[in-house]
């Protein structure tokens, strides 16, 4: 296979993935990987295609995130996505499990502060960074509504806690893969990583 057909086949694979034709995307990524075993892009594409085919939420959002990262720095994007995919086992369902638990049971089991109380502290003029770091070391922030979760993630991104925000976003998109506010936060996070 020539270098030109490698890039053409990768392009076709990405087009297929974007059109939700995951089987065709998988075949094309696998074909490139078979001929170019060191292609990280093909390897990541195979894993994302398999995730999407098995109905595992978050594959589409991760694919979009990967494409955004590649626009800035392809090698770094390959490394970041490879690391995310290696560390994903068991994380995608966590958010769904958390929100599925009855709130009273969670509050009884966990020593924490409700997000609304956390916001009240911020509204009193305290800085997000200081308040969050103080709470992180002494208790947990308990979030009971999706809107609060989105607001919390937005605050994490705005105040430079990008790794933490990405971890939460991966889990959230696993539970809610088509959620527009979460996808917007993922794009915001990706843009922030470029600068």
Characterization of the model:
By secondary structure, the protein is mainly α. It has two domains: 3-86, no CATH class; 94-194. The chain contains twelve helices and two strands, in the order H-H-H-H-H-H-H-E-H-H-E-H-H-H. Residues 89-110 have low confidence and may be disordered.
Short description:
It is built from twelve helices and two strands.
Most strands sheet = 2 strands, parallel
- State the helical fraction: over 70%
Q: What number of domains?
A: 2
Beta-strand residue fraction: under 5%
* Class derived from helix and strand content: mainly alpha
Tally of helical runs: 12
Strand order of the largest sheet: 1-2
If you compute it from the alpha carbons, what radius of gyration comes out, rounded to the nearest whole angstrom? 19 Å
Task: List low-confidence stretches.
Answer: 89-110
Shape: elongated
Multimeric status of the protein:
single chain
Order of helices and strands: HHHHHHHEHHEHHH
What is the mean predicted local confidence, pLDDT?
A: 77
Task: Give the terminus-to-terminus CA distance.
Answer: 36 Å
Strand element count: 2
Q: Any key phrases for this structure?
A:
3% strand, two-stranded parallel sheet, elongated, mainly alpha, 195 residues, 2 domains
Write the layout of secondary structure elements.
Layout: H1 3-18, H2 22-35, H3 40-53, H4 59-72, H5 74-86, H6 94-100, H7 103-109, E1 112-114, H8 115-123, H9 128-138, E2 140-142, H10 146-158, H11 162-175, H12 180-194
Parallel strand pairs: 1-2
Helix pairs in contact: 1-2, 1-3, 2-3, 3-4, 3-5, 4-5, 4-12, 10-11, 10-12, 11-12
